[in-house]
Each structure stands twice: as structure tokens, then as C-alpha cells.
Amino acid sequence: MTKPPVLTLDGVAQAVTLSERVHWIGALDPSLRTFDIILKTANGTSYNAYIVRGSEGVAIIDTVKENFAGDFFARLESVARYDEIKVIVLNHLEPDHTGALPELMRRAPQAQLYISQKAQSMLKALLKQDEFDFKPVFTGDRVSLGDRTLEFFHTPYLHWPDTQCTYLIEEKTLFSGDVFGCHFCDARLFNDEVGDFRFSFEYYYAHIMRPFKEYVNRALVLLEPLLPLNKILPAHGPLLRDQPQRYVQRYRELSTAALQSEISAGEKTLLIFYISSYGNTRRMAEAIYEGAMSIEQVRVSLYDLEGSEIAPFVDLIESADGILFGTPTINGDAVKPVWDLLSSLAVINLKSKLGGVFGSYGWTGEGVKMVEDRLRGLKLRVPIPGIRIKLIPTEEEIQICREFGRDMARDLMGLRQPKTIDMADLA
Amino acid sequence: MAKASITFEDINITVSAPAGTRVIEISEKVGSGITYGCREGDCGTCIMKVTEGWNNLTEPSVLEDKVLRENMAGKHNRLACQAQVLGGTVKVRPV
Asked: Do A423 and B17 touch (CB under 8 A)?
């Protein structure tokens, strides 16, 4: 059994050797219990930062959260002088990685700062300084440290627009930022020595990367050609030196549908969710279902929100092309089960899916409009105004519901006839 | 009032709108797939492709140009929350 790394010596934080030229200079935060409001962190997290020494200078890759700057600087000072720092790379500008940056730049004013092209406006907003010298880089750009070379890979939306990975070519080591990371705090640092962190890895992916699956797949196209890698060094959690390719493969699996969908390529899926207190909104849902079913190549499904937990519905919605919601209006609002589902969709990508709303009401009926606004806020397109029916739908109104379903399905299939409208006629 | 005709190609709908109307206002009402974030020209979410009638939209401001550059937008791209229709015919679609 190997000895755990020495993180402090006589009470002073020490760098941890990862190779002759690469050291970990991050910090551990074991007492953190919630990260960024949305993530639970049962044993805390780590802010990983690294130092790379080349024959012609030193590079710092990422920093730490501001209140952990003391550990970061002590670890840095244990292996390098500030005047040796030639390069500072920020893979991601979130404050947990840039907290120590202003002080680092004050101590190493000669260093050149490298950030992704999309990080430029964020850097200014974070540092609140107008004049700031930095160099924006893109995929394929390189910076030389003499006998060591860093290459950049732009991996946007993993999980901010600015995110990038930095590759140390000569050592086949990827500094991956938040990609392949997780909130897990263990002083043994390395993936082959820490406790079982698989849950944390999957949990982190599910909450941080899942909304950007499409971008994960694009990033993997860039990163997989680097395999086999010697190490993946993420910005949080264990340092992946044992079989790092397994974590790349796991990202690929998590970003790919588990079961092959039975929906064929030419088909579209339309989900109708409803909840109903007296059966009126249910009758509307059934008529909409009937109308939508009349359009070929549309797979329509009808679900009562009372019949399931939220998580399976979130999975269904992630794969669907269109989503309709039926909600009664009670006390001037859409009902809680509808809002509960709508507030659980931030973990998936909804951009440009088709959306629509319908519902029965007693005397006001605001719920439909409220949910429509929410759907637009979630970046769905809402091409057809929602339908509201006062109390029990008549046969005529049921027919309107059938037409609504049919029109939604036609829209989904791109079958709506070209139409010219005057702006004044739009609601 | 002068009018412009703007077609949202993804949903095949053409709207006749008063000159000076921002594309976002029209697009949202007809349910085009152009999606929105900040609505004030900062986030780049509403980048759209202008397939016809580029000159029938207001010129991009310096700030819009900057956001388009930072988002590595293509040559015929504009922000739907900034571009206003001026007249004539315009055709757009989501990127």
C-alpha cells in the first residue's frame, strides 16, 4: 500500500508531486455541504490547481476559491518562485477556480494570462478591472514552456460558455477543468487511493454536465483522440491517474441514450402531461391526444402527472420533440405538480422543443398563460396559443382541443402551411 | 406606418410588422425556434441566421458586434433581441 501524499509539513501546505514537472497546488474544503446552491457535497470538495515546470518557465493551471488562497500560495511557494511564472491558464472562470487570481497576478506581474475566447467578457466582470492583459486562445493554440508544451481545447458549456481543457503534450496529461471532475474531498487525492467516489462522479455529471450533453459529445470528439492519456487532472475531486480512459468512456456512455430508442428517424415524439381535479382538463388532454394521433409519424403519449415521480418524466422530456401541459387554474395559478415538474427541467436541454398548454378553469384561468410564459423562459418554442375552457368542455370545445392537438402535431412535423400574419393580429 | 415583412423559416410564418420592431418581439409571438436568454444583447443566446434582407435590418451596434465576435458567430448572424426590422423583406431562422 502506498503512503498518502504529504499535504502539509510543519503546518505549512506543501505541493504534491504528480510527475517530475507537474505538481498539485490546490486546496481541500472538507466542510462544504452545498456547492453553488444546487449540489450537495457530503464530504466537501477540493479545488485543484496545478503547476507545470518547463525548461523556459513555469505555468500555473487554475487557482482556488478565494478563502483557500493561503494553501494555494504556500503550495506554489514550496516548488516555485513567483518570478519563474511565465504562464497562467484559467480553464474556467467560476470563482471557485479564479478566487486567487488577482493576488497571483499581483505577485507574478510578468506572467501572461491565457483564457478561452468566450471567457473574455466574464473575466472583466469577475475582476472588475478595465485594463487587464490576457490572451484569448482557441482549440489548437499552443504555448511553449521550453521542453514542455501546453495545447488548448475549447470545450464550451462544460459547464459554462468559457470552459476549456489544457493538454500537456509531452506527458499526455489533460488538465480538464470541471470536465471529469466531482465534488469529493479526500486527502489521498488519487483515484486509486481515495474512497469510493463513483456516486459523486455520476451525481456531478447529472447536475452539471447533463444539460449540455450535446456539447459533451462534441468535446469528446476533440478529447478522445488524445487517448490513451497518462493522467486526467480535473479541477475538483480525485486526480485520475489510474485508467483515466475509463472516465472518458463513462462520459460517452452518460451522454448517449442507454437503450436504443424504438422511435425511427423520421418520427417525432409528442408528450402530453396533464393533471385534472374534476376530469375536465383530462377530457381536454384526451381530445388533444386524439387530434395529434391523426398525424402520421408522430408518436404521441399521454401521462397523468399524478401517476409518477418527477424523475422519469424528466428523462422522457429530455428525449421528446414536443411537450404539452394541461393544468387547471386553482386560486389564480397553475397547480403545484405542474410547477414541480417545470422546476425540475434545468438539468436537461429543452432548447427549441415544441411546447403548448391547455386547461380547464372555474372563473379566471391564468394558469395556461403562466405555464406558456414558463415554457418560453425554458427556451421552448410555443407556436400556438394555449386553449382555456371554462369548467366542463362542450362537444364544440372538445373539437377545438382535437384541432389544437392536430395543429401541434402538424407543426412538429413541419407540415404547417406557410402563413402570413399581421403583427397587429397577434395576441 | 412603414411596414416590414419578416419570415421565420423554421415555422414558415411571415409577419407584417411596423418598422422599428425588434425581431425578438415578433419571433416570440409566433413561436419561432429562436430562443432567448438575457434579451439585452449580452448573452448571445438569440443568435439567428439572416438568410435574406440583411440590409433591411438596423446595423449592428459596436456592442452587438462584440457579442457576436465573442460567440464566434457566422457572417450572416445577428442577435434577434437587437436587430430591428426597417422595411422590405427579411428572412431569418434559428442557428
From this structure: yes
